[in-house]
Every structure is written in structure tokens, then in C-alpha cells.
Amino acid sequence: MKVDLHTHTNASDGALTPEALVGLARESGVTLLSVTDHDTAAGCLRAQKAAKEAGIAFIPGVELSVRWGGTVLHVVGLGIDPEDPVVVERFRETARLRAERGVKMGEAFERIGLAGAYEGALARADSPQTLSRTHFAAWLLETGVVKNQQQAFDRYLREGGPAYVEAPWPSLEEGVRFLLDRGALPVLAHPGRYRLRPGWEADAMVDAFVAAGGRGIEVTSGSQSEEANVRYAQVARDRKLLASTGSDWHSDRSPRPRPGCQPPLPADLTPVWTLFGYA
User: Fold this and answer.
1) CA distance linking residue 218 with residue 241, whole number of Å
2) What is the pLDDT of residue 27?
3) For 219, phi and psi rounded to 5 degrees?
């Protein structure tokens, strides 16, 4: 079984439509897929239909942005119901806040002498409601301001950077509770990617996630290092957490692996997909 439970479509900041993403996953040999767009499940129904036609098992998902202290974390919610009216309304409001944030980011770029950032980013997004830092990074890269997307984040878009605009994300506890209340399984996404001090600070993040009701953790991720994969495999063992895996694929502009091509989970861990009836 080749699994990828963390991918993105153009319903948020991915490059491909849900149907095209499923096609790419099929080319890579994926047999179990989840679409986990940022703060929306809008692409899940189309992806689910395409996956069924392609013979790929599918778990609808979402990637929630939450705040833990001064750090923005991401929590994947597996098994979210994209047609749940409560879910639909929550993500509609989030989309409105994203649109407002995009305008403010464009203004921040203007203030530092980079005119046209908002229009350039918006041209690379599906709509103002899906506009994200990734779209601004794509504009910076394609106009030659930076050499790669990581440089765009490091110079301009990271938390505290000159074009960063804080979003009103819910707390970690609120986000996990929302997922649990809607019948979804909370999974801490790419835990090795956050700018936290190794040791006590990273441990405190996992402690807070578990205390909030989190049950799974991405052990292998296309957006964290191999060293982090090994470290969080041990965290999963020690905390008896369910193990998840995902490429975190957005587009081929990124060095991240294609869907399903991230490292596999260690065989001794309990995969998160067993809760959904998959072997």
C-alpha cells in the first residue's frame, strides 16, 4: 500500500485541480490518498469522485492553521465531512479572512518597495479567498526577486518577516476540538518543520497537542528532514500516537517529493489509516 495523507489542490495553494492531483497520485502509484487543503475542504468531493474512478482509496481531509503561543502550527483533520454545514460555514468565514489578509500583505510589500505583489500573487491563485503566502512566494520567484521559494519565505514571508501579516487563527485547543466535534481525527502536521528549539520546546508542542485531544502525528513528511522523520517516529512510539505520512505536495516548483514518494513509515508503528478500515 502506497499512502499519502497530506496533499494540496488549487482549492487552497496547490497548483493542480483535484482531478489533476488524483491523476498525479495515480501516476506515482498511490493507493490511499487524502486531500488536505489549507482551511478548506472545498476540493474533497471532486477529488473523492476522481479517486473512485481511478481505483484509489480516499479519505477527505483538511489542514487547519492554529496558534500555539507565538507559533502557527498545522493540524490535519482526517475524515472531515466536506458537506457538513458547520464545516462549510466555518471555512467560508476563514476564506473571507484570508482574502482580507492577502490585501494587507500586498500593502506590506508596497511599503518595502515591491509594487504589484498583490496582483501578481492573485494571478497565481484560484480566487482572493484562497490567496496565501505560497502564491506571494511564487510571484517573488517568477519575477526574479528570489532564487527559490524557501528564500521567499526566509526573506519576506516568515513569521516576523517584512511582508508577514498575522492571521486570526484559532488556538491549538480550539482547532483540535473543532475537528473532534466534527468527527475528524486530528494529526499534527510536519512537526519537524516548525522553528522551535529542539528538546523541551518541541516536546512541549507535542504535549500541548496530545493534551488538546490530538491522536496522530506525521512521522514521515515531504516537508521535514530525514532527521526529523527519525525523531518523530520515536515520539510516536513513546507517546503511543498513531503514525501518519504525507508528501505535503503543492506543485513541482517545490523540492518536496511527488504524491506518495515521501519516505515510508517504520513498520513497527500503528498507521493512522487503520482507524479508517485500511490494513
Assistant:
1) 10
2) 98
3) -85, -45
Residue count of the chain? 279
At 143, list the grid cell: 519575477
Beta bridge partners of 185: 78
Alpha carbons 212 and 201: distance in angstroms, whole number: 17
CB 79 within 8 A of CB 278: no
Residue listed under C-alpha cell 517529493: 257
| Cβ-based neighbours of 47, under 8 Å, separated by 6 or more | 9, 18, 19, 21, 22, 33, 35, 58, 60
Torsion angle of C-alpha atoms 205, 211, 216, 219, degrees rounded to 10? 20
d(CA 163, CA 33): 34
The residues that bridge with 74 in the sheet, in sequence order, are: 65
**Predicted TM-score of the model (pTM):** 0.89
User: Is 90 exceeded by the pLDDT of residue 149?
Assistant: no
- Please list the residues that pair with 71 across neighbouring strands: 68
Question: For residues 256 and 223, what is the distance between their CA atoms, to the nearest angstrom?
Answer: 6
On the 0-12 / 13-18 / 19+ scale of CB atoms within 10 A, 27 is exposed
User: Distance between CA 223 and CA 35 in Å, rounded?
Assistant: 16
